[in-house]
Amino acid sequence: DAGITQSPRHKVTETGTPVTLRCHQTENHRYMYWYRQDPGHGLRLIHYSYGVKDTDKGEVSDGYSVSRSKTEDFLLTLESATSSQTSVYFCAISASESFSMNTEAFFGQGTRLTVV
Amino acid sequence: SQKIEQNSEALNIQEGKTATLTCNYTNYSPAYLQWYRQDPGRGPVFLLLIRENEKEKRKERLKVTFDTTLKQSLFHITASQPADSATYLCALDRAGGGNKLTFGTGTQLKVEL
Q: Cα separations (Å) of B38 from A58, A61, B74?
């Protein structure tokens, strides 16, 4: 298995509180991604990173921010959690060396977040 | 808007038969198409990648086809086994897309003895 770890694995939080999810990789891959998975929607891209301090928005970025200060860590923050952000969050990494190179993605085990 | 459709109904087949899963897309011009397997409570696991200029790709018991005219990919598992039971996801990316995958909702496959 690719060296990718998400923490926490499960979290219950209250509406309006900030939440940070962590993704840690040991593969030294350049590209990292955060997806959320909801019934009927499949996996949707929230944010991605193509290098340290280089990040960009995905399809469903509203209400989320990210940071990447080191190659190995990619943090996803919900500034003020809402019930609509209850979901399973997956981090992924890719060995792509450029935007023109498409390769397989390796996914973490997921974080189940419940906002009550 | 772009749309990727996979059969939302579960596919039940008998052990030893060939399972065929479909991925259709609209309003999209993918350069790459990938298939993943996902087991309950786990993250997706990569299976196969096929490029737009490739018609077919094989890996062991798996075969993927990619028809850009029909805007469709077919995923085949031959000699299916109960261990193949899982949800299968297709994912697309554009040329120069940076591996920002757009996923279908997945098809659940159940292989029965």
A: 22, 24, 17
